[in-house]
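Sample pair:
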Amino acid sequence: LSADNAIALAAIARGLEDPARQRQALNLGLALALVFRLGLIVAAQWVLNFWPLQLAAAAYLLWLSGRHLVLVWSGDDAEPDDAAGAAGDGSGEHGSLHHAGLGSIVVTLALTDLAFSLDSVAAAVAVSDRLWLVMAGGVIGVIALRLTAELFIRWLEVYQHLETAGYLAVGLVGIRLLLRLGVP
């Protein structure tokens, strides 16, 4: 389980102010993320050799992190000009997804988890050639994320800088993906 992933997912879900809708978004988003993860595991050999997908995941994570950090450091609480609720940082306080609908939050949750999953799936496939074992690990990981994300939503209310720390970690994961690809 990756704490930075859980913090990022919690921050995105927190874009919905109603706790019941946050839980619904987490349930739906992580169900979709599970489908994406299992598909990623099945297609792992192709994905690991298809550098443009890894580059896109790195760019997405860096964009997600950068967007949040720019909003925090600029002190701008105004919502950026998003086209039809495009994926953003999900922060309720600094929030590009603050007024986004359930559907856009669900898709953002699933895509964010997918980008984070590239490294873990690559490692799991390298360690074991037993597809069922890697898939079981993917299922357990998504269940653990679901359980911890709700806890992190509560912690984000208490610990003022936890969200920013999570987004810094998201940026580091993006940089790590770039370094693995050999992109300076």
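Residues 77-96 have pLDDT under 50 and may be disordered.
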